Amino acid sequence: MRSTSAIPLLARNVIDRRALLRLAAQIGVASFGAAGPGFAQQQQAFKVGWIRPTTGRLASSFAPLYFGGLIAVDEINAAGGILGRQIARVEEDDEASPAKEPGIVRKLRGQDIGCFVGPTGSSQSLASIAATTSAKTIQSTYAAAAEAGDGRKYPYHYQIMFNTDQQAAVCVEYMVRTLGLKKIGILQENTAFGEQGTGATKALLQNKFGLSPVSEQVYPIAAPDLSTYVANLQKAGADGVIGWIANVPNAAMIFNAMKTLKWFPPVTGHSGLMLPALFDLVPGEAVKNVFATYYRNFTWTDTEQPGARQIEFAKKLAQYPEAKGYEVNVAAAPYYDFLYCLKAAIEAEKSFEPEAIKRGLDGLKNHKGLLGDISFTPENHSGIGAKDVVLVSVASGQDERAMGCLRARAPGQ
Amino acid sequence: MDFDVITHGIVAGSLYALVAVSFNILFRPTNVFNFAQGELVMLGAMIFASLTSLAGLPWLVAFAATLVAVGIIGLIEERIAVAPILARSQTGTGWVITTLATSLIISNLVGRFWGPDPILVKPPAPLSMDALEIGSARISSYEIALVLITLILVAVVERAYRTLRGKAVMAVAEDREAALLRGIDPGSLGRWSFFLGAAFAAMTGVLAAPILYASTSLGPDLLLKGFAAAAVGSIGNNRGALVAGYVIGVTEAIGASLLSPGYQEAVIFVVVLAILLLKPEGLFGSPNARTV
Fold first, then answer.
1. CA distance B107 to chain A (A)
2. pLDDT digits (tens, 9 = 90+) for B268-290
3. What is the pLDDT of residues A91-129, one digit of tens each?
4. Chain B residues contacting A, CB < 8 Å?
5. Which of these, B58, B81, B106, B62, lies nearest to B191 by C-alpha position?
6. What number does CATH give the domain A165-305+390-408?
7. I want to staple B214 with a disulfide (CB 3.0 to 4.6 A). Which of A193, A203, A245, B119 is the partner?
8. Residue A41 confidence (pLDDT)
9. What percent of chain B is helix, strand and coil (3-state, nearest 5)?
């Protein structure tokens, strides 16, 4: 290829008018090419698509889940942004409707936005991921489905939260190894989340311990009474229950049914069981044996305290009155850590291009996140490791040390 | 199978029957199915819970205020979403969309007023949710009261149709034009029926709240099975709605107890479908026939 650099011209020791003009033009183009975009980048904010419902039934319940992301944006911007560029959120209302997600992805991509935060919810997330994968857009959603962390299937999506497989592993290990129980029942809501949780639980019980659940109860989330399902577990002789229960009214019905039956087996399950609203609906005795999956960094034991960064985060969260009562969900949301991972990747690659960010994220190792040590590979986009997932006492939410989002680790964890 | 299962089915069936009766109150003089009825049930529960738990109003005051408030919402719905449709054509079906739109609007608005957390609603003293052991069944004093109240309410509504205004409603249900010729104002009856139907839906929400908790998801949960009870019991027939409510509630409870998970929900709709296939006009209806 013919060289266009200025060096041969000087080497020839000849300066004619054409060569001089060419050199001037090259210097101009080079300086515009190098300094122009850099200058522009410093001026322009780094736009991040922010997908959440601002209308619809789920608007108020999903809003707090983005507070962690808002805190991260404030912190990063206050510290000078990413490579000198401030983060600017471009909000889109998805009404928490999976059907709206592909259109929102197209709209944001039309604005040349290459990184998305959200949406929230497994079905909304999977609908969105399908579109962002083909659009090659970097994204992190609030999706607990294990497949959302498969880098081969969704190479541009990064899961920074424990998934159903990890939750099932912690629940099964606790029941069988820590408590020594063999007769385990499963209580599951009839949703995709419930099915994934039960599937993972049964597989682990069978493959790791050669056990089968003594009873498997699947309830409709709209059922007016859940005592029959609880009674079925008791009749089947379950010594412990693994529950895939994600909404508070159902959880309240289940624990009140246990109280009516005077049956309080150890129950392990999803972090949704930790919402303080449950304490208004259920007597304390009904939740004393209930444990939920959470992040080790946010827990305490007799000898260990939560991390200083996590305590600081709890204090910041207290400044958001809208987060009151949802602190656990806010802390467990992936968006705070995702924005810091994004920053780390962009700074490592010194580029805001989606492909470069992807390279940076795929190479991220032991990034000290709020939820745990976050690592990705090109194949594994589930960033949270098993060691960072633990069970915590639901009842410890009423302890003054809880500060909204901190909890006591389950005994033996 | 425990007797316990049957009692739970009857309690749930009572709620389905109440929703079905609220459908009927609206339907008789207007021939309109209000697809926002589930949201009105939810509004009843949420407004009542807010007035008692948050504002600290006495039970009876909050109860009356809730019924009036939701009744007015029903009236507004009739004026905006139903009356203009019926004014154009008495047989028009545009209300399917407009009542559905009302449901969506309410559903969107409630998210701005209330969070997702359910609110505990305690039964009025001396009733309680503590379980009493009666033989092999466990049932609370409030649940017993709910079943009795349901029976009384259905009897009261049926009795109301024997009054002059009730007979006017029946006349409009039978033949709107003929009733109009006899000096009955179907429009006025329609407004009243929307007010009363909405207030009845609100009462259902209030009665359901101590068992199901007051939450923004309460209405749609009850809507489907309430609608099924109205259809199985013959549209417009309140005694039929009561029986159908119990059939659905008990079927659901037995299904949960005996069947494998995949069939529990399906069995309710299989039963509903079977009944409607055998008796398309519902359990208590008769085939439509007019002598001219």
1. 6
2. 888 999 999 998 888 887 766 55
3. 999 988 899 999 999 999 988 898 999 999 888 999 999
4. 2, 4-5, 8, 11-12, 15, 107-108, 110-112, 114-120, 129, 131, 138, 208, 211-213, 215-217, 220-222, 224, 249, 252-253, 256-257, 261-262, 264-265
5. B81
6. 3.40.50.2300
7. B119
8. 47
9. 75, 5, 25
